[in-house]
Amino acid sequence: MEDLSGFSIEDMINVTHVKEGADMQEPKVEQLMDKLRRLRRGKSIVEEEIKDLKSVSDTQQKELENLQTEAYQLEGVCKEKEELCRKLQFQCEESEQESERQLKQSEASEGLLEQFRCEIQEVKLKHRKLRYLHIKR
């Protein structure tokens, strides 16, 4: 696993380099200081990455909370609209029933009206006939 400064984690862990066929030698102060500087650079890079990841995580957590809040609100709005829809459907059914009732009543009234017209016509005809008969006499 390589990091950005060109050294591996194994290099950071191992203090001495062992070459094949060579005896283990004590590292020189300069080598240790160089390794220490690289480790510190690596540490600061890792800390910066952790800081960035924490920031991203915090941002995503806030966004998740906002989305959850919005989802909860939308569920409430959806329930309200479903209830309103049920009420409107009920009102629509009631209006249709009332309309059918009025239509039947109107048809019945038209039937009676036509019947009364016919009766009026009959009465008029009877009166004419009576007048005609009365005039003839």
TrEMBL record:
<protein>
    <submittedName>
        <fullName>Synaptonemal complex central element protein 1-like</fullName>
    </submittedName>
</protein>
<dbReference type="GO" id="GO:0007130">
    <property type="term" value="P:synaptonemal complex assembly"/>
</dbReference>
<dbReference type="InterPro" id="IPR026676">
    <property type="entry name" value="SYCE1"/>
</dbReference>
<keyword id="KW-0469">Meiosis</keyword>
<feature type="coiled-coil region">
    <location>
        <begin position="29"/>
        <end position="105"/>
    </location>
</feature>
<keyword id="KW-0175">Coiled coil</keyword>
<dbReference type="GO" id="GO:0000795">
    <property type="term" value="C:synaptonemal complex"/>
</dbReference>
<comment type="similarity">
    <text>Belongs to the SYCE family.</text>
</comment>
<dbReference type="Pfam" id="PF15233">
    <property type="entry name" value="SYCE1"/>
</dbReference>
